[in-house]
Amino acid sequence: MNQLLRLVLGIACSAACLPGWAQTPARNPMPDGSRDMYVGLGAQSAPRYDGTGSRKVRALPVLQVQWSNGIFVSGMSAGMHLSDSPTVEFGPLLAVLPGRDERGSGNGIGSVVETTSFVLVNPIEKQLMLRGQRLGGMDEIATRLQAGAFANYYLAPDWRLTGSALAGSGRDHDGVRVQLGVQRLAAPIADHHTLSLAAGLTLVNRKDNATWFGVTQAEAERSRFAYYRPGGGLQDVHVGARWTWAWTPSWMLTSNVQVKRLLGDAANSPLVERPTNVTVSAAVAYRF
Questions:
Q1: How far is 48 from 108, CA to CA, in rounded Å?
Q2: How close are the terminal C-alpha atoms of the chain, in Å?
């Protein structure tokens, strides 16, 4: 079951490499009963967790699907378009939020660059090993499902404002995240080549920030970190670019880079080594 969960999460994460480049891909009018699907494989280099100076590289399977009834699966999310307007998109949204362990690793498929030691140790030795890890002594955060809604507004055919609100991210599933952004969709830069741009920010409540950037009294007593109780507010700003080369109507290579900057109480957390992180990915995909 754990391996199946990791595979599903890995596939979900990988859809972020696709041309839609959003939790909510653009409404795609199609004949009734049809669907538009991408599958493929790539790789991603990303920080182990937000704010760390340590990175991990992992294989990245690709899957993104849209159906003519408005249902879609994209990135770490799934939802449904309820609007038929050419300038407004909205609907319900579900999103999987990966967990975090003492190494800072979330659930995912097997890493390309990562090793694990299977050595039996006694409890005292294990505690010393955990303290030697970046998040040693911190509670593990389980993977969780968030639920909410999205809404997008087109300023022009290739420009749109995006927004989503999701609940369920906190330690007790009481965290709330709101993401706002602007996107330039698939601007042609040469034959068969397009470039997409995006910028946005994330607002959270206190429960969300405390889960990912706080240190409880119990964690402070068994880790190297001091007690820290962050509040809510602006958690990060981020910008990104995506280049896509469609060398045939079905085959494409797409590469993505995103830069995220932590702000406010999140950036001031004792868990944060580096407030600015970069994620890079690339994948080859086939469109059915």
A1: 11
A2: 29
Summarised one tens digit per residue, pLDDT across range 124-134 is 434 433 444 67
Annotate 113-153 with DSSP letters as a single string: E---------HHHHHHHHHHSTTTTSPPB--EEEEEEEEEE
- The count of other CB atoms within 10 Å of the CB of residue 214 is 24
Alpha carbons 54 and 60: distance in angstroms, whole number: 19
**pTM of structure:** 0.82
CATH 2.40.160.40 corresponds to the domain 2-287: yes
Domains of the chain by residue range: 2-287
- In the chain, the percentage of residues whose pLDDT exceeds 70 is 81
The owner of tokens 């990988």 is: 14
**Buried-state track 8-25, b at ≥16 Cβ within 10 A, e below 16:** ebbbbbbbbbbbbbbbbb
CA-CA distances (angstroms) from residue 253 to 56, 162, 212, 282?
A: 22, 25, 34, 7
Task: Reduce the DSSP state of residue 105 to 3 states and report it.
Answer: coil
- 3-state class of 53 per DSSP? coil
More reliable by pLDDT, 62 or 51: 51
What value does the mean pLDDT of the chain take? 83
